[in-house]
Amino acid sequence: MSARRSKTQGHYPNLDTRDILRDGHVVCCRNPVGRRFGKRDAVRIESAWSTFEDLPEAVRRVREEERVRTAETPAAWDPEFGYLSPEPQFCGSNLYINCMVHLEALNLLGDLKFVLAGLDALRLNAWGCEADVIHDAAHIYHIENRFSLGITEEALVTRITNALQGVVQQEINARLHLVEEDKRILADALARSLAILRAARLLSPWELTDILSPIRMAAAMGFIEGITKEEIDDFTLNQLAEPPDRFDTRDQARARDKRDASFADRMNRRFAKVGLNARGRKLLES
Fold first, then answer.
1. pLDDT at 6 (0 to 100)
2. Which residues does the chain have with pLDDT short of 70?
3. Which end of the chain has the least Cβ crowding within 10 Å, N or C?
4. Concatenated DSSP letters of the chain
5. Among the listed residues 67, 43, 150, 59, the one whose alpha carbon sits nearest the alpha carbon of residue 96
6. Domain ranges of the chain
7. What is the number of other CB atoms lying within 10 angstroms of the CB of residue 52?
8. How many other CB atoms are found less than 10 A from the CB of residue 113?
């Protein structure tokens, strides 16, 4: 899908795929012949990718390592099911492709549910991050193919690439739409997030990941000063990787409140001088 032409698109230094898509991986998981059929003995090969241009190279690296590692011990194969794996989604061509996407603009416009439904129709899994009791935190989604059985490797790569390119382009178009036609929606989301971060008296680390989502998007578009997208990513991704603590007892709940109070004070100080830069004020406050 080609990008929509816009009179303002050239003003956004970071409005590209790398601000939306990240942490892509190609995975091949095969069970060697003559070993117990299970995850423990499976051969798992993985390669990272970050742009659509380097995805084919990541697939090539996986296949090359696969040939080396299975030269002495062939992979289990069945004429009906293809290569066998302890995980059903790997049966067939054994190719599994995933990545993470940040879809904040689609969420703000109310179009996110339609995009996720479209991915489901294409038999691609899309699942959000869980941050304590917050579902789909930060509107960061993992996308992955649901199966590789009954489709060639080339067709699978093409299908996933086309689907992901479509999602990324829809998010780019949504970001452009927010600035050109619904700037009040974006300005409101940023104002609310910044107000909470500057004034909240209790704030959990997992709440922070969700509150930062529109700020991350605005930072990527070049509208924020006082913090970088990379620093926001550190806050967000590091916290999403941490399992939430349990607070089952009264003493634990009090400990949680003390933690959240200290964390809120820290964020109040950190975001006291974070806000729209001159470009952001010109575009969003006009």
1. 41
2. 1-14, 35-40, 241, 243-247
3. C
4. -PPPP-SSGGG-TT-SGGGTEEEEEEEEEEPBTTS-SSGGG-EEEEEEE-STTTHHHHHHHHHHHHHHHTSSSPBPEETTTEE--SSGGGSBS-EEEEEEEE-HHHHHHT-HHHHHHHHHHTTEEEEEPPBTTBTTGGGEEEEEES-BTTS-HHHHHHHHHHHHHHHHHHHHHHHHHHHHT-HHHHHHHHHHHHHHHHH-SS--HHHHHHHTHHHHHHHHHT-EESS-HHHHHHHHHHHHTSPPPP--SHHHHHHHHHHHHHHHHHHHHHTTT-EE-HHHHHHH--
5. 59
6. 9-176, 182-284
7. 16
8. 10
Please write the tens of the pLDDT for every residue from 210-250: 999 999 999 999 999 999 999 999 888 777 767 666 667 88
Cβ contact 139:104 at 8 Å: yes
Task: Give dist(CA 242, CA 28) in Å, integer.
Answer: 26
Model pTM score: 0.88
